[in-house]
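User: For a reading group we're discussing how well predicted structures match intuition. Take Phosphomannomutase/phosphoglucomutase. Before you show the prediction, I'll give you the sequence so everyone sees exactly what went in.
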Amino acid sequence: MAADLSQIVKAYDVRGVVPDQWDESLAELFGVAFAEVTGAQTIVTGHDMRPSSPGLSRAFARGAAAHGVDVIEIGLCSTDQLYYASGAFDLPGAMFTASHNPAEYNGIKMCRAGAAPVGQDTGLAEIRALVERWTESGVPGPAQTPGTITQRDTLEDYAAHLRSLVDLTSIRPPASRHRPSEEGASRPSHLKAVVDAGNGMGGHTVPTVFAGLPIDLVPMYFELDGTFPNHEANPLDPKNIVDLQERVRKERADIGIAFDGDADRCFVVDENGDPVSPSAITALVAARELARHGGKGVIIHNLITSWSVPEVVRENGGTPARTRVGHSFIKAEMARTGAIFGGEHSAHYYFKDFWNADTGMLAALHVLAALGGQEGPLSQLVAEYDRYVGSGEINSTVDDQQGRLVALKAAFEGREGVETDELDGLTVSTTDWWFNVRPSNTEPLLRLNAEAKDEATMAKIRDEALEIIRG
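Assistant: Thanks. Here is the predicted 3D structure of Phosphomannomutase/phosphoglucomutase, as structure tokens, for the group to look at:
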């Protein structure tokens, strides 16, 4: 009987519990299918620090090699380091990680040559179909000449590429954060940055990327440990940045940065330990990327980023482009429009100069450069890019997702000044506020995001929408 992969093949990747939902034997079949669908003669693979990752990654390589494909293994790496290898070598790639999921999970993020995404509409459905067929009928016979499996270290090259895209040589600590405690005390010469790697791959990449930079690095949880002994490696959940916030205050640091498990997302806190919204980071980096490109260019943002983002883009000469939520939509629009940068509310940041792929590390370097290039503290710097009051994402369990969306539209449509669109779920907006409600693809949830010009208006519209959503 063919395996049912519906529980582990998601919209953008493979992800499930090991060994209950998938194991090395399935990983080997995925390797064969990936090679066939991409038609590649050579592929590159990498893996995170989870206990199951090396075995799954090698099984995938073994399957591909048995069918005549050469495999370059870059070993331990962050997801954006794998994207770097795919882009620099112009090869399809596969990264073994389950990102921020608990230790028992693992997965595969796949891309075509040049880090082009592989999702349901761009090869993942075909890969799934082949693996399901082969679990029933058997995999095709091996190639007469098997491929080779070789190892290559890309960490230094990855770090050098990132540093080539941001000038960090002249950054200095904000004067306002380091007033002398006594007469004649000298001002520190470096920014102080606390970085929480969450026992994930940031602990592997940050020391090399930051090496030689004018930054006093305070590391937290840099020990690679796929059991995540200190906290989940998901910085978007407020409980997982509490340690970082406390350490920033204790150290009187200029900035705190948290990475997720595979270190492709970064989250920032200011000198007071207060979270900086990913929309503000998107706007800040967009302004810097536009300056790098002569004040012209398209900036992609998904439809639940703050109003601040398109405003800042226009103010800096750029053209904002609004997309659905999800990295495959962002990357496709980046390629279609030739956009120079894109950002999401989930702290994914995409760069034209990084093959349109997402890299939280490059976004972090931009924030450090922006902070160190002026005299004020981070809280003052980002205030310019954080102009509205947002609700954050609020999830509600519902029995009838579409029915609730219809009820929402009926309740708001026709009111004076109200506009609606259905690019992704339902967006309702006026000149003073907006909200979006999107159904989850995998759970019986509706996700609400709301924003307004002030707290009272945001709370009012949030609560009205929630009352309809929850019936």
